[in-house]
Amino acid sequence: MNELWIKCLFEFIGTAVLVLFGDGVVASTVLKKSKGENGGWVVITLAWGLAVMLGVFIAGPYSGAHLNPAVTLGLAAAGTFSWSLVLPYIVAQMLGGFFGAVLVYLYYKDHYDATDDPAAKLGTFCTAPAIRNYGRNLFCEIVGTCVLVFVILALSIESNIPEVGMGSLGAFPVAMLIVALGMSLGGTTGYAINPARDLSPRLAHALLPIRGKGTNDWAYSWVPVAGPIIGGFLAAGLYCLLLC
Predict the structure, then answer these.
(1) What are phi and psi of 55, to 5 degrees?
(2) What is the domain range of residue 234?
């Protein structure tokens, strides 16, 4: 089987699993009549860390487990990943994010029907700011993603693993990194730090026949895309300046 196809297939599967478990824990804690209802922020951040860990376990040996367009772009900008693979990886990640979100909807369909709050339903697919301030929200997404990509690059120095990405760090350190980001820096915007976990599920929310779903909040949707991309490039620049 074509090597690029295998890499993209596992980026798709890894990202789909990441979103299935990540958006799944949000659905579990906010949708009505769920046994996990009102589980709280700690449950969400821990499960998101584990969601990323599962994606890394799956994709790491085959693609390096980027699972995030901002990571892919940041690694390419830092010279540790081929630019020729950037577009195929991003397409696979975005499709995986969409598929994972659809699975969450199908899994929790009865609970979506039992929930009246449109904002709660949207929140199971994508992020929204705690306080809407576009400039500050963008800054938060930039900083969060910069930390993510810079740590990935820093911990990958002199790695013997041929594919550089989140998989090169090992699954457990990545999980702890995501948990720390969520607990420390996630309170302002919900720490999207990944266009594939925000824009793709937001598109799924727009297309799925969700009862009483309300707005898709397109006015905010550019923040969790632009912020992570800028943060990834900024991390690459810092890496080249300080560690290359």
Answers:
(1) -60, -40
(2) 3-242
| Residues in contact with 6: Cβ distance below 8 Å, sequence separation at least 6, in sequence order | 62, 63
User: Domain holding 101: CATH number?
Assistant: 1.20.1080.10
- What is the per-residue DSSP string for the chain? --HHHHHHHHHHHHHHHHHHHHHHHHHHHHSTT-TTTT--HHHHHHHHHHHHHHHHHHHHHHH----SHHHHHHHHHTTSS-GGGHHHHHHHHHHHHHHHHHHHHHHTHHHHHH---HHHHHHTTS---SS--HHHHHHHHHHHHHHHHHHHHHHTTT-S-SS-SGGGG-HHHHHHHHHHHHHHH-TTT-----HHHHHHHHHHHHHS--TT-----HHHHTHHHHHHHHHHHHHHHHHHHHT-
pLDDT per residue as tens digits for the range 82-98: 999 999 999 999 999 99
Q: Domain total for the chain?
A: 1
Confidence (pLDDT) at 1: 57
Whether this prediction's pTM lies above 0.70 is answered by yes
Q: What is the pLDDT of residues 197-211, one digit of tens each?
A: 999 999 999 999 999
Helix pair 223-242, 69-77: axis angle to 10 deg: 30
Per-chain mean pLDDT for the chain: 93
